Amino acid sequence: MNTRSRLPNAPFAGGNRCVYCPEIADTCDHTPPRCLLRRPLPSNLLTLPACRKCNTGFSFDENVVRALLTLVSSHPDLVAEREPGGRLARALERDRRLRDIIERSRQADGNYGLTDEVLASFERVFRKTVQGLFYGLYERLVEPTELELLRIENSRFVSAQTVADELRPPQLLDITDLPLSEISPHSWHSREPVIVLKLRSLSGGPPIDRLLRLKRETPVDWMQFQPGVFSFTFVKREGAEAACVLELWDTLIVAVAAPWPDSRGPIRRGRNNPMSRDTGST
User: Among 33, 124, 130, 200, which is most buried by a count of CB atoms within 10 Å?
Assistant: First the structure.
């Protein structure tokens, strides 16, 4: 996976625009954020243009996310981090503000919850993460206002694939009242079956026929930066929307709404895109 290839400049006022804000980029940032990964860090991180403020301005929020992830995970590496004297203990000892936020998120039963403070950090970190992945894969800037944190799930109760499937449009589309499009050898009618469903009338009248189109969904393409630690995908939602679904440390699943990259589909062609299926093109 060639994610170290040079990304094109994003021209803004004669220079490179920061991926995360309208300022001029004077540093390089990496995505996924280090706080979501295992050390040693992988060599395939995406390099992005960023201003110095954005490059360093998310550090506290990233520490909050990492601390909560460490506290709730059963992953052996994170279990080791929360041992006495481990990485988490040292982080909490250094930062009183972090320690206070984590302590306030602890519930009466000993578990940790998404308080307003913790949720705010999750929103900032994962909006930034999706901005970086979006630019790295699609060479397109996306504003924070175009992103929305949709779900945070525990992977003990639901799989990342299930979350992705639930965010995608339903495969059965009611086309009874829609005008029939032109039929050709290449139209969807030649590739996707149509189902006639007879529904019993509640008023006792004759059955009602409904025409349903069974849409053939492409498989979800999962991309892994570190197996079992960080994987993600972009899936299409209704209309011109997408969702980025991330699975972290076999522990948390996070979904963020985003705009759809373009009208051609989720994967930009070209071998310089690490998610492209068209790896042989230039």
Answer: 130
For 137-172, write each residue's pLDDT tens digit: 888 899 999 999 999 999 999 999 999 999 987 766
Residues forming beta bridges with residue 257, ordered by sequence position = 148, 243
Do you find a cis peptide bond into 32, omega within 30 degrees of 0? yes
CA angle 198, 201, 202 (to 5 degrees): 145
Q: Which residues of 96-107 are buried (b: 16+ CB within 10 A; e: fewer)?
A: eebeebbeebee
- Taking the whole predicted model, whether its pTM rises above 0.85 is answered as no
Residues 162-198 have pLDDT tens digits of 999 999 877 666 666 777 767 776 666 666 667 677 7
Tokens of 279: 């790896």
Give Cα separations from 215 to 13, 145, 170, 173, 176 (angstroms). Answer: 44, 31, 8, 7, 15
